[in-house]
Design a protein that fits this description.
The chain is built from eight helices and two strands. By secondary structure, it is mainly alpha-helical.
Length: 191
């Protein structure tokens, strides 16, 4: 098993072996060309370093940076950038995220979702009650509210019971309820 310090030491050795290739006589280049005599060993070092970073620092942005630099043309500059990433990882390793931090984040998300759902459910109940309030007597409205209160844990049962109760109040009230359901569906789609 290799360590990051061993990878850095191997990389330091390659630094001195990257040589400039002068342009042949009569050739004018707009770019610099470099070579390394131990090309196969150098490619193995790059592949090992990429693998090491990917395994030991899986969520670190250094993985993509290192891979991008590895794909560039050989030069002392690109090699030094690769070494700099390895040295940075050795100096400041990726912080471990504790299980407690994950739990806190999950709890916050769950709490936010519950609060959002409760808010939407309360708004739906208000829309429903406001829509049928004018058509019901005080006694009928009280019966509907009791059904909602008694069946908070079983919304499907509450819905069925409310529909049955509305049927008993007459067709006019039931048709208003169905229009309200349509409004509620549109409301939940929008939000």
């Amino acid at each position: 098993m290799i360590t990051i310090n061993e990878l850095i030491q191997q990389g330091d050795v390659f630094t001195a072996e990257i040589l400039y290739v002068p342009a042949p006589d009569g050739v004018w280049r707009t770019y610099s060309v470099y070579k390394i005599d131990k090309k196969e060993e150098y490619e193995n070092w790059k592949a090992t370093a990429k693998r090491f970073i990917g395994v030991n620092y899986p969520n670190d942005k250094s993985i993509s940076e290192f891979e991008t630099i590895c794909s560039q043309k050989l030069s002392p500059e690109t090699h030094n950038k690769m070494l700099a990433i390895l040295k940075a990882l050795a100096i400041i390793p990726q912080p471990n995220i504790s299980q407690n931090d994950n739990d806190k984040s999950s709890n916050i998300n769950i709490t936010n979702n519950i609060n959002q759902n409760l808010k939407i459910n309360n708004e739906i109940n208000l829309i429903f009650i406001e829509s049928i309030k004018d058509e019901l007597t005080g006694k009928q409205l009280k019966e509907i509210k009791e059904i909602i209160d008694n069946n908070k844990d079983t919304p499907e049962k509450a819905k069925t019971t409310i529909i049955e109760k509305l049927k008993s109040f007459g067709e006019n009230v039931l048709s208003i309820y169905l229009l309200t359901l349509l409004q509620v569906q549109l409301f939940t789609i929008i939000f």
